[in-house]
Amino acid sequence: MPASDAASQGSKSSALRPHRLDERTLAELCSAGESLRATRALLDAEYSRRLLLLRVLVDEVASRPAETGPLPSVHAAWDLLARSQRAAPEAVHRLLMDPQTGLWAAQALRRLRGSQEADGPLWCDVGQLHALAAAAAVRAGLEFRIRVPAVAGAVLLPGLGRAHLATPEPWTTAEVHRQDGVTRIRTKGAVVDVPAHAAEDAPHWSGLRQLTLSHRGLTLDLTFDDLTRYPVIAGTAAPDRLDGSALRHWRRGLERAWALLVEDHRDSAEALAAGLFSLVPLPPADRFRPRSASASEAFGCVTMSAQHPRIPDDEATAELAVTLVHEFRHTLLNGLMHLTQLAEDCPDLFRAPWRDDPRPLTGVVHGAFAFSGVARFWRTRAERDHGAARDRARFEYALWRRESRATLELLHPHPALTGTGRVLVRGLLADLRSWDSDPVPEPALTLAERAAAHHRAAWRAHHLVPDGPTVRATTDAWLRGTPPPRPAGEEPGTVVTDPGGCRIDAYAHLVRLRITDPPAFAETADGGPRPNGVTPADVAHVAGDLTEAARLYAEDTTRPAAWGGLSLLLGAERPELLRAVSRSVTGRAGQPPPPAELTRWLAAADGA
To answer: What end-to-end distance do the CA atoms of the chain give, in Å?
Structure first.
């Protein structure tokens, strides 16, 4: 919209100026993460970016008027949006900052420029600007009339809800008309009236649900978006509309999580109250493995799985709370990366201890920023919780403090980091190092060390391909019956993503189960149901039956991760080399070498 319209928002008059974070705010982002000051600075910058994104989109469509198809000109929509902003600037500001607005505008621009394909005619994406303008005009109380896209018999008005028109055409238009306080959506043979309180359901209307969570004077206003058209995770299906029971389950869980954050993690809660706008629900996931995601174009949105109905409330509450913190930190870093690069182009792939797959440099920085916040969350829980919850918190704190710090120390000297990237990494490292004197019980430290080592070994077995000459020399030595060649420093290898490298967090997963639910772990150890991705060898390993675990890993070496477990138990340090040499020996000798014997043989060189 015109600069004069942006300027009409008072404190938001900076919206069309370039933004950069001052040193103090950047330092807060590094040391405190989800601070209120940093959040507000990034929100201001993101609003500016949204306005510029919309202006670019309108200009490109105006230069190609045919792209609006059967809809009015883009100028008609733009003018209605500008009128709405003048009448109700705060309401329109919230609508423009809606994460769906960012996702839509980015997709529409990519389609206009030919860099993305999608179902349906281009005008349906372009025409979402008309729907945005209509929603803004409804919020502003204006009288208007405008045509908008109808997709698969539905009209989605951003921030309001969805009308179900049941038209036979997959891609058509509908008229949105507001007069005398009544908003009506009409197409051939169908009329839907939008209720005065649009968040409520009505005949042929699904309202966009709003959750208000308040505790001790701090309120989080959250759109519960189970109507989303533009997915947070590209290529995934839209969520199903939740029934009343599922919605109540979510509300109860979020109320408990919000109270926990306000009581014990006040800084995080204040930042979330300012910058978290919407939640896209996913179905329940495995215990201790919540699914969640955020997107760079959806500032202020998290998508996350529901708490499992069969786990205790205190466990579910902590899981929801830490997931909100985790994903909001990703949101903040996405906002920072809209202002400045953290790294130059870099072809390298790295291990990220919180992921199964190798990640690019910026992805690892993202994860390290998020999980340093996860470590901070569990640090507080380790001080405040009691019993099994405290033991779980101590383990999580020890694990993520260790893994975040190790990752950041690996990244710190990387030449591809920009100046801002180095400042960020240094700040996070300084924060983590300041926790070194925290009293963490030895059992938690030991379990964290073992869980980290197990993940690292499984990751290497799946994704690291050793150098060919090293494999041939080691294979030759085995076949000759001579000692293995000793590694000469850091051996060359190549990171190659193995799509089968999934759920390699088995050790940590079982530790969590053993700490929080000993009867369930005992049942698993006795041959009962196992969590996804967990093998009998993993169960024996965590249970402390190391001889049995080694035997079971050796019987299961078709799984790369089994080489990781076997190498840990028998003292070898290069599970990827074990796997490669086993295949090489099998190809040359016609039969595989005994896995345990091969592992002990290679361990002699690794331990030399």
So the answer is: 69
Q: How many residues does the chain have?
A: 608
Q: What is the rounded distance in angstroms from the CA atom of residue 84 to the CA atom of residue 76?
A: 12
Structure tokens, 142: 């204006």
- Cα gap 448→74, rounded to integer Å: 57
Helices 361-384 and 387-411: angle between axes, nearest 10 degrees: 150
Cα gap 295→46, rounded to integer Å: 13
Q: Widest CA span of the chain, in angstroms?
A: 92
Q: How many angstroms separate the CA atoms of 275 and 186, rounded?
A: 35
User: 199 with 177: CB under 8 angstroms?
Assistant: no
Q: What angle (nearest 5°) sits at the alpha carbon of residue 553, between those of residues 547 and 559? A: 170
Token code pair at residue 581: 């040499």
Over the stretch 256-295, which tens digit does the pLDDT of each residue have? 999 999 999 999 999 999 999 999 999 999 999 999 999 9
User: 194: helix, coil or strand?
Assistant: strand
H or E segment and range at residue 605? helix 595-606
Instruction: List own/partner pairs for 207-212 with CB under 8 A and 24 or more apart.
Output: 207/160, 207/161, 208/159, 208/160, 208/161, 208/162, 209/247, 211/250, 211/251, 211/254, 211/279
Task: Determine the Cα–Cα distance for residues 499 and 481; give it in Å rounded to an integer.
Answer: 35
Predicted structure pTM score: 0.94
Q: Contact, 461 vs 61, CB < 8 A?
A: no
Using the predicted structure, report yes or no on whether residue 427 has a pLDDT greater than 60: yes
Phi/psi for 156 (5° steps) reads: -105, 115
How far is the CA of 296 from the CAs of 99, 300, 331, 335, 347, in angstroms?
10, 10, 7, 7, 21
Minimal CA–CA distance to 125: which of 71, 53, 165, 82? 71
Six token digits for residue 504:
């390699």
